[in-house]
Amino acid sequence: MNKELASKFLSSIKHEREQDIQTTSRLLTTLSIQQLVQNGLAINNIHLENIRSGLIGKLYMELGPNLAVNDKIQRGDIKVGDIVLVRPAKTKVNTKTKPKVKKVSEDSNGEQAECSGVVYKMSDTQITIALEESQDVIATTFYSYSKLYILKTTNVVTYNRMESTMRKLSEISSPIQDKIIQYLVNERPFIPNTNSFQNIKSFLNPNLNDSQKTAINFAINNDLTIIHGPPGTGKTFTLIELIQQLLIKNPEERILICGPSNISVDTILERLTPLVPNNLLLRIGHPARLLDSNKRHSLDILSKKNTIVKDISQEIDKLIQENKKLKNYKQRKENWNEIKLLRKDLKKREFKTIKDLIIQSRIVVTTLHGSSSRELCSLYRDDPNFQLFDTLIIDEVSQAMEPQCWIPLIAHQNQFHKLVLAGDNKQLPPTIKTEDDKNVIHNLETTLFDRIIKIFPKRDMVKFLNVQYRMNQKIMEFPSHSMYNGKLLADATVANRLLIDLPTVDATPSEDDDDTKIPLIWYDTQGDEFQETADEATILGSKYNEGEIAIVKEHIENLRSFNVPENSIGVISPYNAQVSHLKKLIHDELKLTDIEISTVDGFQGREKDVIILSLVRSNEKFEVGFLKEERRLNVAMTRPRRQLVVVGNIEVLQRCGNKYLKSWSEWCEENADVRYPNIDDYL
Fold first, then answer.
1. Is 229 annotated as a binding residue?
2. Per-residue DSSP letter, 584
3. Is 232 marked as a binding-site residue?
4. E.C. number, please?
5. Does domain 472-682 have CATH number 3.40.50.1170?
6. Is residue 344 part of an annotated ligand binding site?
7. pLDDT tens-digit map of 112-139
8. What's the CATH code, domain 172-276+373-464?
9. 85-116 confidence digits (pLDDT tens)
10. Rounded distance, CA 260 to CA 16, Å?
11. What is the pLDDT, as a whole number, of residue 105?
12. Cα torsion 479, 484, 489, 491: sign
């Protein structure tokens, strides 16, 4: 079974990689820099501020905004962990997506004018790119350019790691020794533990509900658990309690916590920080959110605290800074040779420090890809039988392709005696680039969560969290019935909460038509004046709807008149073009920069007091595109706490031939405050 599974995934990953590279290459060779920026694939108007040494052969290039153009970096869709190219603004965009380095004209001393690296840190005022130290000479030449730009490219490292993992899975000979792998390849039946089941006597968090306690007790007593956490059900709090209870039961327990993205694991890291002794918690990789609580656990930062390591690093940084001032190419070359010798010494000392930090920790937090990092796996080179981990926890498992989830299982084979998966298979699936092969799409969209419940139809290992602490009951009702078999309950503390209950809101309690008292509003945009438009500036002509934008603006201004805070409002649209147009109006023209505007993907895992959802699609053919994706809409409609405002054409949803959309729009006609706007009132 392991060979069949690996073979299926290897062919699917190969196809997905090819599609990804072709798509990215086509975009980079056909679109201008400005178009790439508009589509979130590039960042321009930046310059080099600093270069410094990083961890184990890394070089950090720190880039800031060009203040003559803007005081903030327009980040687009580029995020921590992305592979990017950094180039001077005069370099042409025309490129293949493989990380290559180009020569520029002889007046630049023949040096190369392109660097490839990984986005290590990001903020509105600085981007840090981690480069291999072999690019040091090239990187230094960028000081002489006033403008640089960044291009997002295909992350081939990710595909390489998944393929390598699948090959290793196929090579495991029978009989398989690893009990967890036996479950996952359907070579071992799952029988829940009933003989030695021990309930936890005392929970540390007094606010846990019964479903959370049941999930924790089950996970403590069984070697395979899926914690199914719908929106707002406190999945992360459940995991935090589980981790603490594992350490209480066995203080020597070693836990690896993984997730598909930096943000997914940083959320757990932030919550664990005040509850676990600092020396027991270690973060490997690139923290996406640069909170002090995350920094203090970063392997990079902790290893730099070693005095000798610190001294050598400072000496290297000093020489790098000197190189900025050297005009003579020969002198610069000599300087780099000295830096290389220092780096060799630094690398040896860093490995020793890193090994000590990993061994003293009890909880290691990293992404799924980071779980096979050389820092962790180097411990097995010294001692193949070294017991590094006991428990593996994968959070947001439904956002990861299954081959990603195998990376820690194969990298640390025969280590884990317990696997806990947490997530919600009714929210966004992993992002798949393939569009031309249904088998590949099915293979890669079917998550480990989905496949396990298919292998074990009794679902004995699935523990459902049934109380949500986010949404007003009326907002929760349709998602609960359509996606969770009506099992979701609204906690009493949130069931009836409204915008009027916010301390800043100064609405009049006696006025019934006040928007702050209504949890669910739908602006029905039927009619020719609310037709969608294809935006030619965006990839594949993404759609936008000017009439809907006008309604969104009016509703925001109405909420602001009641003093609903800007940062309590979020605007979501499935379409990039609509998001772009909304940002231009609300952020640039109205200067309401604290209102968050994003696609559905950008809001997963987030929440706001009020969400305005702009559906965009309004056409005579009743085409709905993205809106057919139930899980995408489920995410959008479960983000708000106190008010959900939908702006969209009800007739299109009811006549598009999609049962889910028809059911939703009909339910809203009965349960929402439906309004029929006249475009003349908004112009």
1. yes
2. I
3. yes
4. 3.6.4.12
5. no
6. no
7. 488 999 898 888 899 999 888 778 778 8
8. 3.40.50.300
9. 999 986 544 444 444 433 333 334 444 488 99
10. 17
11. 34
12. negative
The pLDDT tens digits for 672-682 are 999 999 888 87
Distance of CA 634 to the CA centre of its chain: 17
* 544 has pLDDT over 80: yes
Res. 299: pLDDT tops 50: yes
Positions of CATH 2.40.30.270 in the chain: 2-157
Q: Which two tokens stand for residue 488?
A: 């979701």
pLDDT in tens, 470-502: 999 999 999 999 999 999 999 999 999 999 999
| Whole-Å CA distances, 371 to 389, 419, 582 | 11, 15, 39
29 is in an annotated binding site: no
Cite the DSSP H helix spans in 326-365: 329-360
CA–CA dist 557, 548 (Å, integer): 14
How much of the chain is helix, strand and coil, in % rounded to 5? 45, 15, 35
26 contact partners, CB below 8 Å, separation of at least 6: none
Q: Is the peptide bond before 175 cis (omega within 30 degrees of 0)?
A: yes
Using alpha carbons, select from 541, 609, 629, 555 the residue that is nearest to residue 586.
Answer: 555
pLDDT digit string, tens, across residues 509-518: 666 568 999 9
Mean pLDDT, residues 643-671: 97
64 is in an annotated binding site: no
479 known member of a binding site:
no
Nearest to 216 by CA among 445, 447, 459, 420: 420
Residue with tokens 């090579």: 171
Per-residue pLDDT band for 349 (boundaries 50, 70, 90) equals confident
Query: For the residues 629-653, what does the mean pLDDT come to?
Result: 97
| Residue 650 in tokens | 């009800």
Residues in the chain: 683
- Write down the pTM of the prediction: 0.89
Structure tokens at 182: 């036996």
Q: Which residues contact 459 (CB under 8 A, 6 or more apart)?
A: 453
Long-range contacts of 197-203 (CB under 8 A, 24+ apart): 197/221, 200/245, 203/241, 203/245
Q: What does each C-alpha distance from 491 to 210, 413, 494 come to in angstroms? A: 12, 41, 6
Burial class (CB in 10 A: 0-12, 13-18, 19+), 612: buried
Question: Is 235 assigned a ligand-binding role in the annotation?
Answer: yes
What is the Cα–Cα distance from 74 to 81, expressed in whole angstroms?
17
Q: Identify which of 648, 582, 572 has the alpha carbon closest to the alpha carbon of residue 610.
A: 572
Contacts of 320 (CB under 8 A, 6+ apart): 51, 52, 53, 136, 140, 339
DSSP structure class, residue 298: B
Topology of domain 2-157, CATH: Elongation Factor Tu (Ef-tu); domain 3 (2.40.30)
Nearest Cα neighbor of 596 from 442, 604, 262 is 604
CATH 3.40.50.300 in the chain is located at: 172-276+373-464, 472-682
User: Residue 118: which H helix or E strand, with range?
Assistant: strand 115-122
DSSP code, position 137: H
Two structure tokens written together for 105: 């004209």
574 annotated as ligand-binding:
no
Compute the C-alpha angle 253/164/346, nearest 5°: 65
